[in-house]
């Protein structure tokens, strides 16, 4: 056998026996890891709706705007007071609307003697007007009544009005007069309202600015 043939036989033997063993001895190539799964998309909760716009509360209506509450407004003002039919001034009087028109306050300032004052208001539960008068003598009189024929008429029991121990009824009628004046006519009854006699009669004229 020629030398070249021997080398060929040897190479074939090496290829058949040695190379497969060498390849088998090599570590197995690591397989590439599969790509990670895509992240799970968790659906978001819907955003809460915006809070409703605050609705402002309705405006509060004043409590004393009804005509019943305003029936005595014609007496409100600053007044010079005269005896009816006379030019002689006897007092000044301040009549003020108070507490949103729910009450009327009188401050009576006579030129002679002690003063006094009153609070008047419409009693919505009893549906009539009430007035409380208190003066410097310590007297207190509660009047009740209301509008009658365009006039305000209030009647009350006045203790010791005639003399000590002799009571009477006093009825006061307020009426609008020409020129913006107001008349206050007071009548007295000592027989429980069967008969009446004039007790006082005043004309309230608007006070002129600058006058005392």
Briefly say what this structure is:
It is built from 1 helix and 10 strands; from the N terminus they run H-E-E-E-E-E-E-E-E-E-E. The chain has 212 residues and is mostly beta strands.
Can you describe what's shown?
The chain is mainly β and 212 residues long. 11% of the residues lie in helices and 43% in strands. The chain contains 1 helix and 10 strands. The chain has one helix spanning 3-25, and strands at residues 77-83, 89-98, 103-110, 116-123, 128-135, 140-148, 151-163, 166-176, 182-189, 197-206. Strand 9 (182-189) and strand 10 (197-206) form a beta hairpin. The relative contact order is 0.11.
Give the low-confidence spans: none
Record field, number of beta strands: 10
Characterize the main sheet. Answer: 10 strands, antiparallel, barrel
| N/C terminus separation | 163 Å
């Amino acid at each position: 056998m020629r030398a070249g043939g021997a080398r060929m036989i040897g190479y074939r033997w090496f290829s058949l026996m040695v190379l497969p063993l060498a390849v088998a001895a090599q570590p197995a190539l690591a397989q590439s890891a599969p790509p990670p799964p895509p992240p799970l998309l968790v659906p978001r909760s819907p955003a809460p709706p915006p809070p409703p716009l605050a609705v402002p509360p309705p405006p509060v209506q004043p409590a004393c705007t009804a005509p019943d509450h305003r029936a005595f407004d014609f007496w409100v003002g600053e007044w010079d007071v005269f005896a009816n039919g006379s030019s002689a001034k006897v007092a000044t009087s301040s009549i003020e609307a108070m507490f949103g028109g729910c009450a009327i306050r009188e401050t009576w300032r006579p030129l002679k003697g002690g003063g006094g004052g009153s609070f008047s208001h419409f009693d919505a539960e009893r549906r009539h007007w009430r007035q409380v008068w208190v003066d410097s003598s310590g007297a207190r009189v509660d009047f009740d009544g209301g509008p009658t024929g365009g006039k305000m008429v209030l009647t009350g029991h006045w203790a010791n009005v005639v003399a000590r121990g002799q009571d009477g009824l006093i009825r006061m009628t307020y009426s609008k007069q020409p020129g913006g004046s107001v008349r206050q006519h007071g009548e007295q009854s000592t027989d429980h309202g069967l008969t009446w006699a004039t007790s006082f009669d005043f004309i309230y004229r608007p006070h002129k600015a600058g006058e005392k």
